[in-house]
Amino acid sequence: MPDEPILGTYPTGSFIGTFSFKVTVEGVNDPFDGFTKISEIKREIETMEWKEGMGRGVRKALGRMKCSDVTLERAYQGMDDFYGWFETCTRETDKRTVTIDFLRPNGDTVRRYVLLGAFPKDWVLPAMDATSSTIGIEKITLAVENMYQE
User: Fold this and answer.
1) Which residue ranges make up each domain of the chain?
2) Do residues 140 and 122 lie in contact, with contact meaning Cβ atoms separated by under 8 Å?
3) What is the reported pTM?
4) CB count, 10 Å around CB of 62?
5) Which residues contact 70 (CB under 8 A, 6 or more apart)?
6) In Å, how far from its chain's centre is CA 114?
7) In which band, very low, low, confident or very high, does the pLDDT at 39 lie, cut at 50, 70 and 90?
8) CATH code for the part of the protein at 12-149
9) Cα–Cα distance measured from residue 75 to residue 61, given in angstroms and rounded to the nearest whole number
10) Could you say which DSSP state residue 127 is in?
11) Could you give phi then psi for residue 47, rounded to 5 degrees?
12) Residue whose C-alpha is closest to residue 39's, from 11, 62, 18
Protein backbone atom coordinates (compact mmCIF):
# COMPACT_ATOMS: atom_id res chain seq x y z
CA MET A 1 0.00 0.00 0.00
CA PRO A 2 1.55 3.36 -1.02
CA ASP A 3 2.19 5.98 1.61
CA GLU A 4 -0.87 8.19 1.73
CA PRO A 5 -1.11 11.41 3.69
CA ILE A 6 -2.94 11.01 6.94
CA LEU A 7 -5.87 13.35 7.45
CA GLY A 8 -4.80 16.21 9.65
CA THR A 9 -1.10 16.10 8.78
CA TYR A 10 -1.16 19.10 6.44
CA PRO A 11 -0.05 22.40 8.00
CA THR A 12 -3.09 24.54 8.66
CA GLY A 13 -1.34 27.51 7.07
CA SER A 14 -1.85 25.89 3.65
CA PHE A 15 -5.64 26.09 3.84
CA ILE A 16 -7.66 29.13 2.85
CA GLY A 17 -10.18 30.12 5.51
CA THR A 18 -13.52 31.65 4.58
CA PHE A 19 -13.66 33.86 7.66
CA SER A 20 -11.27 36.63 6.62
CA PHE A 21 -11.92 38.58 3.43
CA LYS A 22 -12.07 42.08 1.98
CA VAL A 23 -14.42 43.50 -0.66
CA THR A 24 -13.27 46.39 -2.87
CA VAL A 25 -15.36 48.17 -5.51
CA GLU A 26 -13.87 50.10 -8.43
CA GLY A 27 -14.27 53.85 -7.98
CA VAL A 28 -14.56 53.71 -4.19
CA ASN A 29 -11.48 54.65 -2.19
CA ASP A 30 -12.12 52.59 0.92
CA PRO A 31 -12.80 48.85 0.94
CA PHE A 32 -16.26 48.01 2.20
CA ASP A 33 -15.43 46.72 5.63
CA GLY A 34 -17.93 44.96 7.79
CA PHE A 35 -19.19 42.31 5.40
CA THR A 36 -19.96 39.24 7.44
CA LYS A 37 -20.88 36.85 4.66
CA ILE A 38 -20.44 36.35 0.92
CA SER A 39 -22.43 33.75 -0.97
CA GLU A 40 -20.61 31.16 -3.03
CA ILE A 41 -18.86 32.45 -6.12
CA LYS A 42 -19.87 30.23 -9.00
CA ARG A 43 -18.79 30.10 -12.62
CA GLU A 44 -20.09 27.43 -14.94
CA ILE A 45 -20.15 26.38 -18.57
CA GLU A 46 -23.50 25.40 -20.01
CA THR A 47 -23.56 22.27 -22.10
CA MET A 48 -25.37 21.76 -25.37
CA GLU A 49 -26.78 18.30 -25.97
CA TRP A 50 -27.86 16.68 -29.22
CA LYS A 51 -28.45 13.30 -30.75
CA GLU A 52 -26.96 12.21 -34.05
CA GLY A 53 -28.99 10.03 -36.41
CA MET A 54 -30.31 6.80 -34.95
CA GLY A 55 -27.63 6.58 -32.26
CA ARG A 56 -28.79 6.03 -28.70
CA GLY A 57 -26.14 8.25 -27.14
CA VAL A 58 -26.30 11.95 -26.48
CA ARG A 59 -23.45 14.16 -27.66
CA LYS A 60 -22.35 17.15 -25.58
CA ALA A 61 -20.44 20.33 -26.40
CA LEU A 62 -19.31 23.40 -24.55
CA GLY A 63 -21.83 26.22 -24.45
CA ARG A 64 -21.93 29.65 -22.86
CA MET A 65 -20.02 30.53 -19.72
CA LYS A 66 -22.00 32.25 -16.98
CA CYS A 67 -21.47 33.50 -13.45
CA SER A 68 -23.94 33.29 -10.62
CA ASP A 69 -25.09 36.33 -8.68
CA VAL A 70 -23.06 37.09 -5.55
CA THR A 71 -24.80 38.17 -2.34
CA LEU A 72 -22.95 40.22 0.26
CA GLU A 73 -24.20 40.56 3.83
CA ARG A 74 -23.20 43.07 6.48
CA ALA A 75 -24.47 44.90 9.54
CA TYR A 76 -26.91 47.60 8.47
CA GLN A 77 -25.36 51.06 8.85
CA GLY A 78 -27.76 53.25 6.92
CA MET A 79 -27.06 54.87 3.57
CA ASP A 80 -23.48 54.81 2.26
CA ASP A 81 -21.59 54.63 -1.03
CA PHE A 82 -22.75 51.08 -1.70
CA TYR A 83 -26.41 52.07 -1.41
CA GLY A 84 -25.65 55.12 -3.56
CA TRP A 85 -24.29 52.77 -6.24
CA PHE A 86 -27.56 50.80 -6.08
CA GLU A 87 -29.58 54.02 -6.44
CA THR A 88 -27.49 55.05 -9.47
CA CYS A 89 -28.24 51.69 -11.08
CA THR A 90 -31.99 52.33 -10.75
CA ARG A 91 -31.53 55.21 -13.24
CA GLU A 92 -28.59 54.22 -15.44
CA THR A 93 -26.07 51.46 -16.13
CA ASP A 94 -23.10 51.58 -13.75
CA LYS A 95 -21.18 48.31 -14.03
CA ARG A 96 -17.99 48.06 -11.99
CA THR A 97 -15.17 45.71 -11.14
CA VAL A 98 -15.40 44.18 -7.67
CA THR A 99 -12.56 42.30 -6.02
CA ILE A 100 -12.90 39.84 -3.19
CA ASP A 101 -9.65 39.03 -1.39
CA PHE A 102 -9.36 35.94 0.78
CA LEU A 103 -6.95 36.91 3.58
CA ARG A 104 -4.57 35.10 5.87
CA PRO A 105 -4.82 35.94 9.59
CA ASN A 106 -1.96 38.45 9.16
CA GLY A 107 -3.90 40.31 6.42
CA ASP A 108 -1.92 39.05 3.39
CA THR A 109 -4.01 38.19 0.33
CA VAL A 110 -4.09 34.46 -0.38
CA ARG A 111 -6.45 34.49 -3.35
CA ARG A 112 -8.23 37.26 -5.23
CA TYR A 113 -11.45 36.91 -7.19
CA VAL A 114 -12.21 39.66 -9.68
CA LEU A 115 -15.87 40.13 -10.62
CA LEU A 116 -16.29 41.98 -13.93
CA GLY A 117 -19.32 43.93 -15.09
CA ALA A 118 -20.88 43.77 -11.61
CA PHE A 119 -23.83 45.86 -10.51
CA PRO A 120 -26.21 45.71 -7.54
CA LYS A 121 -29.49 44.16 -8.64
CA ASP A 122 -31.05 43.66 -5.23
CA TRP A 123 -30.77 45.41 -1.86
CA VAL A 124 -32.65 44.00 1.13
CA LEU A 125 -33.18 45.99 4.31
CA PRO A 126 -33.11 43.86 7.46
CA ALA A 127 -36.38 42.81 9.05
CA MET A 128 -37.30 44.87 12.11
CA ASP A 129 -38.26 43.21 15.39
CA ALA A 130 -38.81 45.29 18.54
CA THR A 131 -38.49 42.16 20.73
CA SER A 132 -35.05 41.24 19.42
CA SER A 133 -31.59 42.44 20.35
CA THR A 134 -29.82 41.20 17.20
CA ILE A 135 -28.00 43.36 14.69
CA GLY A 136 -29.84 44.07 11.46
CA ILE A 137 -28.16 42.46 8.44
CA GLU A 138 -28.58 44.00 5.01
CA LYS A 139 -28.14 41.92 1.86
CA ILE A 140 -26.78 43.26 -1.41
CA THR A 141 -26.93 41.01 -4.47
CA LEU A 142 -24.58 41.71 -7.36
CA ALA A 143 -25.20 40.53 -10.91
CA VAL A 144 -21.86 39.48 -12.43
CA GLU A 145 -21.01 39.23 -16.12
CA ASN A 146 -17.66 37.48 -15.81
CA MET A 147 -14.99 36.67 -13.26
CA TYR A 148 -11.48 35.38 -12.93
CA GLN A 149 -9.13 34.31 -10.17
CA GLU A 150 -5.70 35.81 -9.53
Assistant:
1) 12-149
2) yes
3) 0.79
4) 9
5) 38, 39, 41, 98, 100, 115, 118, 141, 142, 144
6) 9
7) very high
8) 2.30.110.20
9) 44
10) P
11) -115, 145
12) 18
